[in-house]
Write a structure and sequence with these properties.
By secondary structure, the protein is mainly α. It is 82% helix and 0% strand. It has helices at 2-22, 35-45, 49-61, 65-70, 74-85, 92-112, 117-162, 167-177, 182-194, 199-209, 213-228, 232-256, 258-281, 283-291, 293-317. The longest helix is centred in the middle third of the chain and has 46 residues, at 117-162.
Length: 321
Amino acid sequence: MDNLGLFLVLLFFAVLFISQALLLPVAGQKAKHGELAKRLKQAQRKVDEESLSLLQEYYLKEMTPFERQMVKIPAFERLKKMLELGGLKVTLGRLMGWVTLASVLALVVSLVLNQQWYVSVAIFFAPVVITYMWIQRCISKRLQTFEEQLPESLDIIKRVLQAGQPINQAFKEVGEEMPDPIGLEFSKTFNLLNFGYDMRLAIMQMVDRTPTVSMLAFASAVILQKETGGNLTENLDKVSKVLRARFKLARKIRTLSAEARLSSWILVLSPFALYILTMFINPTHAELLISDPRGITAVSVGIVSLAIGAFWIRRIVNIKV
């Protein structure tokens, strides 16, 4: 029974991590480096401390008193940012309560079933890992949707500017005409501008909420026009064309790599399918794998090897555009 529990735990984490490694998004990946990010950081240094303080105060107003205390801890602050990136409505305190309750219940069940201590520890942390993976998937999906909507939003901004309206009004039009998440983000930026915030500050706050390469390109165009002048309509038209070409190329890469990713799924999951088939054909032979300590060792080494191989395949097919 103990060996079976360990085997199931190893199987669970293997499928979980491997599935995350092989799920390749078309877009929606957070931008971490690059010339655009450096340029925005330089612009952020020019924003006065008073404006940043007002923005921080505006950010804290949306939290409960308990959350304001929690975000003082860096780990909880990062978790709060992740919830915002994923567009999740659940509060930080409620999420922590649910995950803690699930972990305790899982641990109690494991102890009642007399599992080994390492199995109980793995089961205790399983809800945490599942929640983290779920939030990451929500972030990737939301940012991917945002990037798909951005070129159309730029077209709306361009038409409003060509009609002689200010960029504030263009943000309002995007917020009213486009669905979430991009409509919500532009509405928030419009509200900040109405409160009297500096354009650079409002744009950088928007980048912080949706840190994608596409958003960095848009923010750079707006901030550059704000600081040096120029034709913003023409710049946004060029950015829109580049973003559409980038997304088209990303789609093509995903299509070309589909065969490799399918082969990866088959190679990774075939050992588990073979073991299940063996359980029906020859249960005595299959039981040796989980009853003999050498079998558990072989399973552990195999799962680690599969995970390394899956992440290595992801590195190969995940071409940054």
